[in-house]
Write a structure and sequence with these properties.
42% helix; RagB/SusD family nutrient uptake outer membrane protein; cell outer membrane; 4% strand; 18 helices; signal; mainly alpha; SusD-like_N; two-stranded antiparallel sheet
Length: 544
C-alpha cells in the first residue's frame, strides 16, 4: 500500500459513514456496503475516512496547538475580545467546543464502523489484522485526545463496535484509559514497524509511544493508578532500545521537515499529515499561520501569530545561551509588511510569537491561512522524557532518568544537568516540547496548572512595571545581517545595539486569560451544551 496518508478525494463519501446507516458509493464491480471490506481498497477507504477526522479536528490548530498553550507558563493568546477556548472566558455553549467534540466523535464512529465491517471480512487474515490494528490504534488516539481534554476523572462517552450508535453515559476516566491501553496493545502486536509502515500511518513504535504516554496519564493525578509508572517506563524503553529510532542531530531540522511536508520517522514516531495541493484548504491546516512566526508580507507565507511565548519561557531559554532550542522556539525576529520577506528585530521580549512553526519552507506558501505544515503527535525526544519521568518516580534521583534528560539536552547543545528531580524533568518538557500541544495537559496531570497560571501572571506584571527591564536580545543580537535567503545566521554581528525597554502592546490585553482562570473548572473543557440536549444520559462536568 504505497500511499501517503493524506486525504483522498474519492473517499469523502465515507467520512460521515458512522452517522448514517447507509454507505452511499458508486456501484462498481459489484462493490456494496456489505462487501466493501472484502477488498483491500475498500478497507483502505474506510480507514482513510476515519483518519480524515483526525486531520479535520487538527486543521484549525486549536485543540492540538493553541488551546494547550494559552495562558499557561508556555504562551498566551494575544487578541482582545475573542470568546472561545483559547481564553478562559468561554461557556459550555461555545460553538468551537461543539465542533471539536463532534469531529472527534465522527472519527470514533468511523473507526467503529471500520472495525465492524472487518469482523466478517473475507480479506486474507494477516492483512485483515493489520487493518483492525490500525483502526484500533486510531480509535485509541482519538479517545486519548477526547479524554485528556474533556474527560477527567468523570470520563467521556465511549462507544465501541457493539454500541456505536447508542447514546451513552460517561465511562469513568480510568476505564477510558484502560480501553485505550487495550486497543494500543492489540495495535502494537499487529502493526508494522516504523521502518516498514507507510509514512504518516500508524506503526508499532507509535503504539508503544502512546502506551507510554497513556500509562503516564494513568499514573498521574487524579487517577494515581498503581503500577502505571512501571508500565510507562517499560513501553518507553522498548522504543528507546529500538535501533531504528534516534534523535535527529539537528533540533531545527525536525521542524523544517514538518514544514516541508516530509516524514522523518526516526525521531517523529507519528505525525498528522496535511497537504495544500490545488490550494485545497480541507486538506491543510493553520499551523504556521494562526500558530507560528509573525510574517506580515502577504507573499511570504502569511503568519498571523495569535500566540506569544511567555516572558518566563524566553528567560528560561536565554539563561543557557548554548541551548539551540531557545533561538528556534522564541525567535527575536519577524517579517515586516512590504519588506521583501526580510526580517527585523522584535523590540520587546513580551511579544515573541511562537516561532517553532515557520512558513518559509512550506511548498506553495501563500497569503491564505492554510498550508501543508505537518503536526508531530509523538517524538522520540518525548519518549526519552517520559522514560525519565517514570524512572524518577520509581527511583528518585535515578541515573537512568538523568541520562535520558541529558541525551535530549545534548542534542540541543544545552548545558547538561548534574542532578535529576521532578521539577527538572517538568522544565525540560517545557524547553524541548514547547508549542507541541503538551503543556496544559502536563500541568493538569501534575496538579500545578493554577500555580503556574498565578506565577506567570505575577512575573509578567512585575517585569512590565520595571523600567530597568530591557530586551537583552536586542542588545546582544540587534538587527540581523541577512543572508541571500533573507534569514539571519545565528553568528551575525548586530548592526544596532541601541537599548530598548520592554513594553506591552497597548492594543492587546495580555492578562485577560490569566485573570479569568477559574481553578474549579478550567482544568478541563465542559461537555458541549448542545450534546447534553441530545444525549440525556450525559451529565455535565463538575464545575461547569
Amino acid at each position: 500500500m504505497k500511499i501517503k496518508f493524506i486525504l483522498v478525494a474519492v473517499l469523502t463519501a465515507f467520512i460521515l459513514q458512522g452517522c448514517d446507516d447507509q454507505l452511499e458509493i458508486e456501484q462498481k464491480d459489484n462493490i456494496t456496503a456489505e462487501n466493501l471490506y472484502d477488498t483491500e481498497a475498500g478497507a483502505l477507504a474506510g480507514l482513510t475516512g476515519a483518519y480524515s477526522r483526525a486531520v479535520a479536528v487538527y486543521r484549525e490548530a486549536v485543540i492540538n496547538a493553541q488551546y494547550p498553550t494559552q495562558f499557561t507558563d508556555e504562551g498566551f493568546y494575544n487578541r482582545k475580545g475573542a470568546q472561545d477556548i483559547r481564553k478562559n472566558n468561554f461557556t459550555a455553549a461555545e460553538p468551537m467546543i461543539r465542533d471539536i467534540w463532534g469531529t472527534y466523535y465522527e472519527g470514533v464512529a468511523a473507526t467503529n464502523t471500520l472495525l465492524v465491517g472487518l469482523e466478517n471480512s473475507t480479506l486474507e487474515e494477516s492483512l485483515k489484522q493489520e487493518f483492525i490494528a490500525e483502526g484500533r490504534f486510531l480509535r485509541a488516539f482519538l479517545y486519548f485526545d477526547i479524554q485528556k481534554a474533556f474527560g477527567g476523572i468523570q470520563g467521556i462517552p465511549m462507544p465501541l463496535e457493539d454500541t456505536n450508535k447508542q447514546l451513552l453515559p460517561r465511562t469513568p476516566g480510568i476505564d477510558v484509559y484502560k480501553q485505550i491501553v487495550k486497543d494500543l496493545e492489540f495495535a502494537e502486536q499487529n502493526l508494522k514497524t516504523a521502518a516498514e509502515a507507510t509514512p504518516g500511518r500508524a506503526n508499532k513504535s507509535a503504539a508503544r509511544g502512546l502506551l507510554a504516554r497513556a500509562y503516564l496519564y494513568m499514573a498521574s493525578a487524579p487517577f494515581n493508578e498503581a503500577g502505571a509508572y512501571k508500565k510507562s517506563s517499560d513501553w518507553s524503553k522498548m522504543v528507546i532500545e529500538d535501533p531504528y529510532h534516534q534523535l535527529n542531530n539537528s533540533y531545527e531540522d525536525i521542524f523544517n521537515q514538518l514544514a516541508m511536508g516530509n516524514y522523518e520517522t526516526k525521531e517523529t514516531l507519528f505525525q498528522i499529515g496535511f497537504s495544500f495541493a490545488d490550494q485545497d484548504s480541507n486538506q491543510s491546516s493553520k499551523l504556521g499561520s494562526a500558530f507560528g512566526m509573525k510574517i506580515d508580507d502577504e507573499g511570504c507565507g502569511k503568519g498571523y501569530a495569535l500566540t506569544y511565548a511567555t516572558i518566563g519561557l524566553v528567560l528560561k531559554y536565554r539563561s543557557d545561551p548554548a541551548d539551540e532550542r531557545g533561538f528556534w522556539n522564541t525567535y527575536p525576529y519577524f517579517n515586516k509588511r512590504n519588506n521583501n520577506c526580510e526580517l527585523s528585530t522584535i523590540n520587546s521580549q513580551f511579544m515573541y510569537p511562537v516561532s517553532k512553526w515557520r512558513r518559509f519552507l512550506e511548498p506553495n506558501n501563500s497569503n491564505t491561512s492554510y498550508g501543508p505544515h505537518h503536526w508531530p503527535v509523538i517524538r522520540f525526544a518525548d519518549v526519552l522524557l517520559m522514560y525519565a519521568e517514570a524512572e524518577n518516580k520509581l527511583t528518585p534521583g535515578s541515573s537512568l532518568a538523568l541520562d535520558a534528560v541529558n541525551r535530549v539536552r545534548n542534542r540541543a547543545n544545552a548545558t547538561p544537568i548534574t542532578t535529576i528531580t521532578d521539577a527538572a524533568i517538568q522544565d525540560e518538557r517545557l524547553l524541548e516540547l514547547a508549542f507541541e500541544g503538551q503543556r496544559k495537559f502536563d500541568l493538569v496531570r501534575w496538579g500545578i496548572l493554577e500555580q503556574r497560571v498565578n506565577q506567570t501572571r505575577t512575573q509578567m506584571k512585575t517585569l512590565e512595571a520595571n523600567p530597568n527591564f530591557v530586551n537583552e536580545d536586542w542588545t546582544s543580537l540587534g538587527e540581523p545581517n541577512l543572508g541571500p535567503d533573507g534569514i539571519p545566521e545565528s553568528g551575525d554581528e548586530p548592526v544596532n545595539r541601541e537599548i530598548r525597554n520592554n513594553v506591552m502592546n497597548a492594543s492587546f490585553d495580555f492578562y485577560e486569560g490569566y485573570n479569568d482562570f477559574d481553578p474549579t473548572k478550567h482544568y478541563i473543557l465542559p461537555i458541549p451544551e448542545q450534546e447534553l440536549g441530545v444525549n440525556t444520559n450525559l451529565k455535565q462536568t463538575t464545575g461547569w
